[in-house]
Amino acid sequence: MIRFLSRRILTMAVTLLIISALIFFIIKLPPGDFLSNQIAELRAQGESASIAKAEFLIKQYGLDKPAWQQYLVWLGVMPGPNGFSGLLQGDWGWSFEYDKPVVEVVGDALWLTLLVNLAVVIFIHVVSIPIAIYSATRQYSVGDYLATFIGYIGLATPSFLLALILLYYMNRWFGVSIGGLYDAEYAGEPWTWAKTQSLLSHLLVPTVVIGLGGTAAMIRRMRANLLDELGKQYYVTAKAKGLGPTKALLKYPFRMSLNPFIADIGNLLPHLVSGSVLVSLVLSLPTVGPILLSALKSQDQFLAGFILMFVALLTVVGMLISDLLLAWLDPRIRMGGGR
Amino acid sequence: MEAPLLSVRQLTVDFSTDAGDFRAVDGLTFDIPKGKTVALVGESGSGKSVTAQAILQILSKKAGITNGSILFNDPANGGAVDIAALAPESDAMHALRGGRIAMIFQEPMTSLSPLHTIGDQISEALTIHADVDQATADRKTVDVLARVGFPDPKRALTTYPFELSGGLRQRAMIAMALITRPALLIADEPTTALDVTTQAQILDLIKELQIETGMSVLLITHDLGVVANVADEVVVMYRGRIMEAGSRENIFRNAQHAYLQALMRAVPRFAMGENERLTPIREVKSAALASAGAPQRIQPQGPILKAEHLTKCFTLRSGWFSGKTQQIRAVSEVDLTLPVGKTLGLVGESGCGKTTVSKMIMRALTPNSGRVLFDDGTGPKDVHKLEGDALTAYRRSVQFIFQDPFSSLNPRMTVYELLTEPLRIHDIGTSDERYQRVKQLLDMVGLDQRSLRRYPHSFSGGQRQRLGIARALALEPRVLLCDEPVSALDVSVQAQVLNLLKDLQSALGLSYLFVSHNLAVVDYIADTIAVMCRGYIVEEAPKSSLFRNPVHPYTQALLAAVPDPDIDRPLDFAKLRTGRFSQPSEWPEPFRIKPGEFGAMKEIEPGHKVRVGHLTAREAA
Fold it and tell me: Which of A107, A139, A306 is nearest to A220 (CA)?
């Protein structure tokens, strides 16, 4: 077990290192960088004070050095102007666009993103699993067709469109403004009970909007998995034992059909961050998605790099978690036997 | 006369599918007396499993009982209940199912959930039907596991099905069925997936438990040998109808119905005459075979194929989290000789290494030591050293026939594409010549030429296996490696394919290496038989002397365990009960082989060799 874990953590570290290099160099691929673009713009307007500051920042972050040196400094394995100070030391860099350290820009947004998307994941599972069980056990019934039909509509509806529609009608019918994650008056306020309440009531619509497509896809997959398992011999055995239908279903085929979803956790985690960019834009949710988008557009390299690294970290950690969970849940994997 | 435990009257089961309605069981009427075993016999698709499912009301959703009654006369309950009239999910039905009527299935691996422990699954059967706490249930589970022969029942509680051998899994299934002490046990092909020695032990166990508990058994099987050994009464089904029913004595001594007589003639038996031929139920005629002569080529002086001291080890990793590896010797010092135009039978139980040997001969695996020699008339050459053109020529000369006719044919290729593929790979002939060749091949295996454009799914299992044979013949090979070619087929079809292989051999001068676990089949087709156990060849002899005078204890056990469809030759259960026949270190002297030793083959009469331990071998030398 310890050997397994240490081997896995080592490969994870190597993977992350490779990803960090890829991220950095791809961000640097377009000519120029945030500051030189800005300087060019400022020159055109003739603002020498700002130019001086920008040039100071270029020196400060070594943007005049070759890309590979910038990369090593960013990583924290080569001394920059401030000595060793990079990702490894916990210094996530400076956002030029916001003129703030990355940690301050991303801070709240990161946790709100995780919150929204966690709510989405729970929503997807809570809604789709019962529907999937219903439609798998009553295959080709009216209910199954109905669930399938609604599922296809859910799959086919672009979520940003649904967001716009809901935005309009919720306001018109219920007088609810659903933009943002809390009412405007709480922005920048410390977390209070009232703010939390406001957050929860604002959470509902984004959750449904973002989750709908996923729910539909999940129903389809879960139904297919479950149908496969329902045909298996051990389910017949369970029924021949005299188990009631519900208990036989939940204890045997359902449990088996969960395996692919546990294996999927590794893919799910990064989606928590990057999955909802469009909807976040439409609903003006203060999540990481829009920040990442604008950072990439303006070549705000440390900000974009940090968010992408965070997503990568979530991916490898998610894979590890799903592997451990699978081993815990499935004795065949744990004990390495089976055919 | 005492009322029967179960009376089935005019039972009719209909399926409604997209392809139309279909009657699987048609007016079935039979009785199961108390404490007796009734065997339901038939080919696949005869409706025997559907009958069993109807009795337990676990039919698939597409099927339903449309007529008839199933009266269950439970001794523990007094009055009779008509199962057919109960709703499948009613409380009364739940109480019967698993409680009073229990069922075991064919494939013990898939019948048990891989995610739950044996103990959990067995004790569950008890807690559903009896009001007991988990501790009591566990204790009773240990008792019943001990009863069905688990070596360490306490430990078995927490083991998972995949950690057990096939035989132990089936024992666990039986324990699960019997823990509630049912009045009727339905056994649906309970031993079909097991090795012969294990099969004999399981049949013996069911018989013993039947005497102990007084339950009745409904045994569903296609194996007349099993029927002859354990059934009291026999019901023969064909296409949902009863063809013939009666006592075992009557059925075997005095089969009346033409179908039953035909079925009996189609099964290979040990007592067959030297040139006696099996009679398939549906004979396949091949016009081309009589005229197709063997291709003219130089024949080798010695054997066409020879294996010398073949040894193969596999490295196993014991678990996900542990880096520990383990060396398993799958094949040890195997010597085989295949003369031209003859058949060498390789017999052994699952896991004995016979398939590994055939794969090494095919050069799909590389042996750790030893060599395979192939002689195409220009002198023997080491197969594993062949390169370039010589290797291509070897590939053409040695072809393979697989066990499973369903997965060995690509479902997305037509028959024409399947059969021309070997020709295309080896770049033989123009497309016209290939077309002629394919038509000729289809003729040889007795298939209609109009099937060229069809896909494999539209053929039956036997027809597919004949397609597999036609594909193997496309390159005019000299040697065919047949790996269990008839194990997945019904008896009637099995006879067809065996006869075809025999005819092809005499017409085309082929040599066969025939790998099988079925002794009777090997006896029918092979000239020389080699018996394998734990990677060793333990005995090798011409078939007549092997069956007349088996010397090695393992061969003897294997022979004794085969149920013969002949009620005058019953299985000797008492003898089979004692042994651990497949442990080389527990064989009696002079056959004992200690771990790490190979022993040596000793010739006891011309052509008849048997493996003995080191000491004996040295004395002899």
Answer: A139
Count, residues in chain A: 339
> What is the reported pTM?
0.80
What does DSSP say about strands B398-401 and B600-605: parallel, antiparallel, or unpaired? unpaired
Per-residue pLDDT tens over the stretch A297-310: 888 888 888 888 98
Query: What ipTM goes with this model?
Result: 0.75
Tell whether B364 lies on the interface with A, counting CB pairs under 8 A: no
Q: Is A49 on the interface with B (CB under 8 A)?
A: no
The b-or-e profile of B107-143 (16+ CB within 10 A means b, else e) is bbbbbbbbbbbbbbbbbbbbbbbeeeeeeebbebbbe
Cβ neighbours of A327 in B, within 8 Å: 320-321
Taking the CB of residue B245, how many other CB atoms lie within 10 A of it? 19
- Facing B58 at nearest CB: one of A239, A255, A336: A239
**Percent above pLDDT 90 for chain B:** 35
Cβ burial of A15 (10 Å; 0-12, 13-18, 19+) is middle
Closest CA of chain B from A328, distance in Å: 11
* Residue B154 to residue B135: CA distance in whole angstroms: 13
Kindly determine whether residue A256 and residue B113, on different chains, have CB atoms separated by under 8 Å: yes
CA angle B223, B276, B550 (to 5 degrees): 70
* Beta-carbon pairs below 8 A across chains A and B: 102
- From residue B78, give the alpha-carbon distance in Å to each of B181, B217, B304, B417: 17, 20, 70, 64
**H or E segment to which residue A163 belongs:** helix A159-169
**What is the CA A100 to chain-centroid distance, rounded?**
24
Q: Can you tell me the distance from the alpha carbon of B50 to that of B45, in angstroms, rounded to the nearest whole number?
A: 9
**Tokens linked to B259:** 């179908």
Residue B206's CB is within 10 A of a number of other CB atoms, namely: 24
How do B511-516 and B343-347 pair as beta strands? Answer: parallel
